[in-house]
Specification:
Elements: H1 5-12, H2 22-31, H3 40-59, H4 69-87, H5 91-109
């Protein structure tokens, strides 16, 4: 019974996808002595990986949605994020790139206006 308590405790915690819960997880892990783990060697590669995933989602079926404009804006935003975070260490540039990337995502997901199809002969 005692061996299952940690599993039950973890199951009752909110999902890790909740950014508001990350400080709580960091506090719990630090109290257990795991806060010293150095994740910085993996930060650049993980950031690049997730930015490529974001760009892939912007480019997936781009012709059907908004064209390649959101993908181009997302690529510029990804370059700004990488440069701002890892090359220049400038938080303003990094956050500006993140805002541009969110703008590209909103632009890509915004529904297209339906134009009247001139080839449709609705009045028969």
């Amino acid at each position: 019974m005692a061996a299952t308590l940690p599993g039950i405790g973890v199951a009752l915690l909110p999902k890790l996808a909740c950014p508001a819960c990350w400080p709580a997880y960091a506090g719990v892990l630090s109290s257990l002595g795991i806060g010293f783990v150095n994740y910085s060697p993996y930060l650049l590669s993980l950031t690049v990986l997730f930015l490529f995933l974001a760009l892939g989602s912007l480019g997936f079926r781009a012709r059907r949605r908004r064209g390649y404009g959101p993908l181009a804006l997302g690529a510029v935003a990804a370059i700004i994020v990488i440069a701002g975070k890892f090359i220049f260490s400038h938080d303003g540039a990094m956050y500006g790139g993140v805002i541009l990337l969110m703008g590209a995502s909103l632009w890509n997901s915004w529904p297209r206006s339906r134009k009247a199809d001139s080839s449709c002969s609705c009045a028969s």
